[in-house]
Structure formats: structure tokens, C-alpha cells
């Protein structure tokens, strides 16, 4: 027993020694790597200090005005997010504007139907003047929505031209803020007419208590929507107002990021309010459509109005999610060289000076001019190369076909020249014959008859010239038709060749399918044969088992009979 324990301990000791050697080797490697890393870091630190001493003469970090001309250090991830957000908003702002314009248009149609008495049995004479003014105001919605699109496009172009993707607010947002303020004033102008139209619909004799409640809720939600638009315009106005000068010590833009957060929250609330407006309006429409006085045109207009509200809510939802996904301004949007993150007083992170964008543009222009002198050879994309190869091959084929056509046309021209010479000879013969006949007839006939014969000869010559021209024209027409038929036959021949190739491929596929079908049939036959053999063997086995069972049953019956006979014989012998 002690011997076994000693052997186990010796094995354990050997394994521990082996592990210790491995750990010591790893420790030596780590120490060597640490020494190399320390040497390299010290060398890099010394190089950095040398560069700073040679290039940076002074750095006054205590005064913000000393670093006012520094180009900011921007973060690439922040610029990528801002660029993606700007492109998204370039699609979402026009979409929201178009949806709001559609909503105002359908609201105008509903107001005009309300004037005609097609909704809720309203008296046409009730509030005719204000409702007509309401319809006219709704008709002019494009004059207030179009400037918003144009102002955002101008802001987008300005940011792209500066090539510095930082949403720092400032005067570049002023046109967009002014356009949104005009639209908000337009909504405030529409708000009393909305309340008047709701009261006019509620004053109809077919209205009930539920309808009054739905109209009151709808008016309250519409008021909330206008309030949200008003808040959005005010936040944009705050963003467009420049609170301090760049590089100054004092900063009055402490709430800039808070304003941006409020703006993002307002877009989400606006989406929720439009969803609430859609629900209330749908409930009101369902209640009104049950009334017998509502026309089919009014029902169609109401459905379009609800669908336009849904599109507006969807656009607001997209806008809200885009703003929530891409942060407009982070606390580390940019930083100035020479200042640490814990500088007191804190740096202004809301605005950049005009010099930053100017220096960025100058740097980009310089790099573009450098690229002009060191322009690498352009590489043709693979798709364009494939298209060019196909076009070149088709041009080669066309060249061959054109060469063949040129050869055939040369042959035809040669034939035409031969026919021309033939007809020229014919014409000369006819002219000589005519002159001979004219000389023979000259002594007999008078001067007037000779002049008449000369005139007739000229007619004959003109006739034959016309016939020659007609035959040449017909020959040219036949040649052109022959060229056309030749090209068409060439195309048909190519199509026939392709069809034959396709037919060969299909025949090959058919043969493969037939072979596979034959293999499957052979496999099915072999499987059926094997199953039949198995069934026959099973049936033979069952027959032999039945025979064995019958034999065993006979033996058991015989044993039972013999046992019963022995018992009866014992009973007979017992009384004796």
C-alpha cells in the first residue's frame, strides 16, 4: 500500500515540476516582451517630445482666445451619424410636407362638402361665410409647406458645402426656423375655423350626445398638435440663435444639448398626437357614416382624410425614430487642441466659428489639387468591362456581316454596270436605226414631215431613257430588298443555330431523365423482388413454426392423457 502511494506522489511531483518549468519559461518570455515594449514606448515618447519641442513653440491653454483659430478635432463616427441623419431627413422632410399638404387638401374637400350639406344634414346657410374662408385658407397650404422643404434643402446644401458634418445650429438654421414659424402661424389661423367646423357639424339635427363628445375630443387633440408644432418652432428658433462668440471665455449655451433633446422628444409626441387624431377622427367617421343623410362622396372623402392622417403619422414616426437613432449633438462632438476634457470653465460645444468650415474647405481643395497631379490610372469596373467586351464582339460580328454585304453590293454594282453598258449599246443601235430610217424617208417627205419625224424620234429616245431609269430604280429596290432579306436570313440562321443548341441540351437532359427513370424502375423491381423473397421466407418460417406448435400441442395432449390415466388407475388401487 505504501509503495503505491509513494509511486502516486512521485508521479504528482514530476507533473508539478513539469508545470513549474513551463510557467518559468512563460515568465521569461513575458519579461523579455515587457522589456522590448518598454524600450519601444520610451523611444516613441522621446520622438514625440522631440517633435513637440521642434514644432510647437507655445500652447496657451489658459485663454480660450489663444486657441480660437485651432481647427477642431472631430470624431469620424459622429460625422458618419450626422451625414446619415442629414440624408435621411432630406427624404423624410419632403415626405412629411407632402403628407401634410394632402391632409389639408382632403380637409378642404370635407369643408366644401359640409357647406353643401352632404355631411350630417347640415343647413347650407349655417356659417357659410367662415367655412368658405376656412376652405380658402386650406387651399393655400402649399405656400406655407413648400418653404419648409426649400429651407431644409438650403441647410442641407450648406452643411455639405462646408464638408464639416457637425450640427452646431447657428444662423444656418434661421431660414428653416422662419419657415416653420410661418407654418405654425398658419395653423393658429386655421385653429378657430376647425373649432367652428366641428361646432357646425355638431349643431345639425341628426347629431347625438356621443357625436358631441367625439367632436370635443377631436378638437382637444387638434389643439395639442398645434401646440407641439409651436414648441418645435420655438426649439428650432433657440437652436438658430447664436448664444456666444467662438473662442470666448464666457459661454451662454449651457442648455444647447437640452434643447436638442427636447426637440427629439417633441417629434415623438407629435407622432403620438397624430395617431390620437386618427383614432378620434376614425371613431367620428364611423358614427357619421351610419347616418342615412351622408352621401357616398362624403364617405369617400372621409376615408381619404383618415388615410392621409395615417400617412402623416407614419412620416412623423419615421422622423422620430431617425432622430432617436442618430444623436444630433454629443458632448464630445469636437474638441479644440490644447484643452483637456476637464478644463474649467467648460468649453462651448454648441457653435463653431466660421474659420473652421473655411479651413476645412481650403484643406479639401488643396487635397483635390494634389490629386490632379498624382492621379492614378482609372480602373474600369468589371460590369462596364463585360459590357464593352460584349459590344466589341457584336461590333466584330457586325463588321463581318458588313464586309459580306459590301462584297455582295460590289458584285451587284458590277452587274448593274454591265447592264448599263448593254442598254447604252441598245440605245446607240436604236439611235443609228432611227437616223438611217430618217435619211431614207427624207427625199420622199417634205421639210415639215422631217421636223415631225425628228420630234417623234426625240419622244422615242425620251421613252427609252425613262424605261432605263425605271429599270435602274427597280434594280436598286431589288438590291435593297435582297440586302434586307440577307440580313434577316442571317439573323434567322443564328436563331436556328441557338434553337438547335437548345434542342440538343434538352435532348441530353431528356436522356439523363430517362436513364434516371430506368434506374429508379430497376431499383423498384429489385426492392419488390427482395420484399417478395423476404415474405416467402417469412411464410415458410411461419409454416414451420405452426408445425412445431401442433407437434408440441399433440405431445402436451398426450402427456395430459397419460397423466389422467395414471391418476385414475391410482384411485382404483387405493381402496384395496
TrEMBL record:
<protein>
    <submittedName>
        <fullName>Putative smooth muscle myosin heavy chain 11 isoform sm1-like strongylocentrotus purpuratus</fullName>
    </submittedName>
</protein>
<feature type="region of interest" description="Disordered">
    <location>
        <begin position="545"/>
        <end position="576"/>
    </location>
</feature>
<dbReference type="InterPro" id="IPR019348">
    <property type="entry name" value="PPP1R21_six_helix"/>
</dbReference>
<feature type="domain" description="Protein phosphatase 1 regulatory subunit 21 six-helix bundle">
    <location>
        <begin position="90"/>
        <end position="338"/>
    </location>
</feature>
<dbReference type="InterPro" id="IPR049372">
    <property type="entry name" value="PPP1R21_C"/>
</dbReference>
<feature type="coiled-coil region">
    <location>
        <begin position="392"/>
        <end position="426"/>
    </location>
</feature>
<dbReference type="GO" id="GO:0016020">
    <property type="term" value="C:membrane"/>
</dbReference>
<feature type="coiled-coil region">
    <location>
        <begin position="6"/>
        <end position="54"/>
    </location>
</feature>
<dbReference type="Pfam" id="PF21636">
    <property type="entry name" value="PPP1R21_C"/>
</dbReference>
<keyword id="KW-0175">Coiled coil</keyword>
<dbReference type="GO" id="GO:0005769">
    <property type="term" value="C:early endosome"/>
</dbReference>
<feature type="domain" description="Protein phosphatase 1 regulatory subunit 21 C-terminal">
    <location>
        <begin position="455"/>
        <end position="563"/>
    </location>
</feature>
<feature type="compositionally biased region" description="Basic and acidic residues">
    <location>
        <begin position="550"/>
        <end position="560"/>
    </location>
</feature>
<dbReference type="InterPro" id="IPR040024">
    <property type="entry name" value="PPP1R21"/>
</dbReference>
<dbReference type="Pfam" id="PF10212">
    <property type="entry name" value="PPP1R21_helical"/>
</dbReference>
Amino acid at each position: 500500500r505504501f509503495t503505491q502511494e509513494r509511486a502516486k506522489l512521485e508521479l504528482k511531483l514530476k507533473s508539478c515540476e513539469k508545470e513549474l518549468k513551463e510557467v518559468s519559461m512563460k515568465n521569461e518570455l513575458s519579461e523579455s516582451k515587457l522589456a522590448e515594449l518598454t524600450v519601444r514606448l520610451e523611444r516613441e515618447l522621446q520622438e514625440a517630445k522631440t517633435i513637440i519641442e521642434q514644432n510647437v513653440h507655445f500652447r496657451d491653454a489658459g485663454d480660450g482666445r489663444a486657441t480660437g483659430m485651432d481647427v477642431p478635432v472631430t470624431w469620424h463616427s459622429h460625422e458618419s451619424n450626422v451625414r446619415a441623419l442629414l440624408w435621411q431627413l432630406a427624404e423624410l422632410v419632403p415626405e412629411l410636407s407632402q403628407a401634410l399638404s394632402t391632409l389639408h387638401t382632403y380637409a378642404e374637400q370635407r369643408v366644401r362638402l359640409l357647406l353643401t350639406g352632404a355631411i350630417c344634414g347640415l343647413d347650407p346657410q349655417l356659417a357659410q361665410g367662415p367655412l368658405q374662408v376656412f376652405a380658402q385658407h386650406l387651399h393655400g397650404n402649399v405656400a406655407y409647406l413648400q418653404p419648409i422643404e426649400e429651407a431644409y434643402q438650403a441647410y442641407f446644401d450648406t452643411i455639405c458645402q462646408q464638408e464639416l458634418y457637425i450640427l452646431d445650429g447657428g444662423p444656418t438654421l434661421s431660414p428653416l426656423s422662419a419657415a416653420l414659424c410661418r407654418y405654425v402661424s398658419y395653423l393658429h389661423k386655421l385653429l378657430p375655423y376647425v373649432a367652428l367646423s366641428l361646432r357646425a357639424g355638431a349643431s345639425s339635427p341628426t347629431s347625438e350626445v356621443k357625436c358631441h363628445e367625439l367632436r370635443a375630443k377631436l378638437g382637444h387633440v387638434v389643439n395639442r398638435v398645434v401646440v407641439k408644432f409651436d414648441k418645435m418652432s420655438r426649439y428650432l428658433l433657440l437652436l438658430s440663435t447664436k448664444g456666444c462668440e467662438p473662442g470666448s471665455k464666457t459661454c451662454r449655451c449651457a442648455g444647447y444639448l437640452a434643447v436638442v433633446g427636447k426637440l427629439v422628444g417633441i417629434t415623438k409626441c407629435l407622432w403620438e398626437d397624430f395617431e390620437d387624431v386618427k383614432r378620434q377622427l376614425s371613431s367620428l367617421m364611423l358614427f357619421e357614416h351610419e347616418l342615412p343623410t351622408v352621401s357616398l362622396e362624403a364617405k369617400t372623402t372621409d376615408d381619404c382624410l383618415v388615410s392621409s392622417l395615417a400617412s402623416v403619422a407614419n412620416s412623423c414616426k419615421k422622423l422620430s425614430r431617425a432622430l432617436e437613432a442618430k444623436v444630433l449633438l454629443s458632448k464630445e462632438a469636437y474638441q479644440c487642441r490644447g484643452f483637456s476634457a476637464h478644463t474649467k470653465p467648460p468649453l462651448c460645444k454648441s457653435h463653431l466659428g466660421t474659420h473652421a468650415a473655411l479651413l476645412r474647405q481650403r484643406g479639401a481643395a488643396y487635397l483635390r489639387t494634389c490629386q490632379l497631379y498624382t492621379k492614378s490610372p482609372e480602373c474600369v469596373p468589371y460590369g462596364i468591362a463585360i459590357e464593352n467586351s460584349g459590344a466589341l464582339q457584336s461590333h466584330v460580328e457586325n463588321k463581318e456581316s458588313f464586309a459580306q454585304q459590301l462584297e455582295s453590293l460590289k458584285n451587284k454594282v458590277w452587274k448593274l454596270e454591265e447592264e448599263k453598258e448593254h442598254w447604252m449599246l441598245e440605245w446607240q443601235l436604236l439611235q443609228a436605226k432611227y437616223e438611217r430610217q430618217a435619211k431614207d424617208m427624207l427625199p420622199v417627205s417634205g421639210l415639215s414631215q422631217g421636223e415631225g419625224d425628228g420630234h417623234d424620234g426625240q419622244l422615242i429616245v425620251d421613252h427609252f431613257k425613262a424605261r432605263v431609269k425605271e429599270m435602274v430604280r427597280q434594280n436598286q429596290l431589288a438590291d435593297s430588298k435582297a440586302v434586307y432579306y440577307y440580313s434577316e436570313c442571317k439573323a434567322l440562321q443564328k436563331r436556328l443555330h441557338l434553337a438547335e443548341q437548345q434542342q440538343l441540351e434538352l435532348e441530353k437532359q431528356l436522356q439523363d431523365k430517362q436513364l434516371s427513370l430506368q434506374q429508379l424502375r430497376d431499383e423498384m423491381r429489385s426492392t419488390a423482388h427482395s420484399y417478395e423473397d423476404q415474405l416467402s421466407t417469412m411464410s415458410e418460417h411461419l409454416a414451420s413454426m405452426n408445425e412445431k406448435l401442433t407437434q408440441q400441442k399433440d405431445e402436451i395432449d398426450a402427456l395430459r392423457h397419460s397423466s389422467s390415466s395414471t391418476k385414475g388407475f391410482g384411485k382404483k388401487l387405493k381402496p384395496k
